Amino acid sequence: MNTHAIRAIYRFEMARTFRTITQSIASPVLSTSLYFVVFGAAIGSRMGAIDGVSYGAFIIPGLIMLSLLNESISNASFGIYLPKWSGTIYELLSAPVSYLEALIGYVGAAATKSVMLGVLILITARLFVPYHIEHPLWMLGFLLLTAVTFSLFGFIIGIWADDFQKLQVIPLMVVTPLTFLGGAFYSIGMLPPVWQKIALFNPVVYLISGFRWSFFGQSDVNVGISLAATLGFLALCLGIVWWIFRTGYKLKS
Amino acid sequence: MRIATEPAPSGVGEPIVQVSGLGKTYAGGFQALKNVSLSIRRGEIFALLGPNGAGKTTLISIICGIVNPSEGTVLADGHDIVRDYRAARAKIGLVPQELHTDAFESVWATLRFSRGLFGKPPDPAYLEKVLRELSLWEKKDNKIMSLSGGMKRRVLIAKALAHEPKILFLDEPTAGVDVELRHDMWQMVRRLRDDGVTIILTTHYIEEAEEMADRIGVIRRGELIVVEDKAVLMRKLGKKQLTLNLQNPLPRIPDDLAALPLELAGDGGILVYTFDAQSEETGIADLLRRLGEHGIAFKDLHSSESSLEDIFVGLLRSDANAAREPGA
Lengths: 253, 328
Fold this sequence. Notes:
The complex is a heterodimer.
Chain A: H1 3-19, H2 21-42, H3 55-86, H4 89-94, H5 99-128, H6 136-160, H7 164-180, H8 193-199, H9 203-216, H10 223-247
Helix pairs in contact in A: 1-2, 1-5, 2-3, 2-5, 3-5, 3-6, 3-7, 3-9, 5-6, 6-9, 6-10, 9-10
Chain B: E1 15-25, E2 31-41, E3 45-49, H1 56-64, E4 71-76, E5 79-80, H2 85-90, E6 92-95, H3 107-117, H4 124-133, H5 149-161, E7 167-171, H6 179-194, E8 198-202, H7 206-212, E9 215-220, E10 223-229, H8 230-237, E11 239-246, E12 262-265, E13 270-276, H9 284-293, E14 298-305, H10 308-324
Parallel strand pairs in B: 3-8, 3-9, 6-7, 7-8
Antiparallel strand pairs in B: 1-2, 1-4, 4-5, 9-10, 11-13, 11-14, 12-13
Helix pairs in contact in B: 3-5
């Protein structure tokens, strides 16, 4: 195992995060804080509790998940797309680095950044709304699992994309709407029966539900199903990455 | 014209890169390399020449692991580039043709990254030595985007050297750099060779190959048409010319002398005699005697030898003509 290479990629990617800390950390924390101000402190005080949880606290898992999904995808896709775009990918391809090592470096750095961001948002939320975490270890587990899974997804997008527009299209046009419709701001149980059934086709529902369960001990979907769905998506992403590396898709001619 | 696709390396260095039957056909059907076989000797400077699109970069890219070969094998210092890619690639450094750099990174950060990527532990003292040798030490904290084109080229060389490779590929290393920097680079390449690094360079500047290379390879349309020691190549294919500035211009070459390799130039005021540089009998004495017999006097004469560029152009032309001939 070329651990020096993994460390080099990881450090290089993390250095980029700290060099652009306003964009990569401060900006998402600020925008999420605004959600807490508007939906938690202002509107939330006029809304009733959901399943015994105040509205301000109820939206914490959904908002963390919203940032986590977007940042994981964005970090990982940008991390591998940038060398492709600038041409410096030649160095990675000519180095004695296995695909697994490259993956650990890029996805590891992207997931680390997302987890850091998730924890920061969690701490920021404390400034606006009181909350209690029922299952802290499960919470961390879901946080980590989701960050790694969606960083892998982002890595795939970064390989697939051949312009900046493609890099943005899935996070903006697919992931964000699915997260908003996946129960970030409400319980699926509040929807009419038909929409409840349709919502179950939204994979983000399972992520938010499982994560919310770790906070409050209650969820829209059984936590086992949430976990299985997340692991299933992780397996799917791993399969696609394996295929990309085996065929050299958009990496090697 | 074809001069042995690959003569067995004679004498000096043992092979450090061995290419056997290498072929590359891209997805669109374009055949970039056709059955290329080549040995690069340890410690030599090998220049790969060829026109645009001849397959130089494809050959380098395959050896470095950037492009997959369609057929054939490559050994780098005895390691197969596919089966034993870790050991093979660890020996190789590549300076690409284009200025691909991490524009927002500092010179130091990008060097550390390169060294780590190739599996080497941090060694600030070695990296400092590399940067000093390339006159980059003062720029180590500068962002790459703030450097000039020549400096960026040096950064790419520093990155390629960061992991102490035994084989260094320089793909058009002096493209677009000024004359002074080009000469600096030539010196640097010689120093590297003196340190035991094998250098393979592609170039469009024939004088660069003539100045630096120990051996020359010429590639055309994916085929290696010549591999030869530079001195032997110039001796074998080089021609000498004797130029006579005539006292009185000639309307045409006398019939009696028409069989000789003579040409009139400069409105008949210059007579050019081409002869084989290899041959013991140049025929100059006979020519001068016969010119005297015809009363052709000259006021000045000088001889010149073909440059590598002349040989290169001649090779490509003769190969193109051979390809056009039916049944060739």
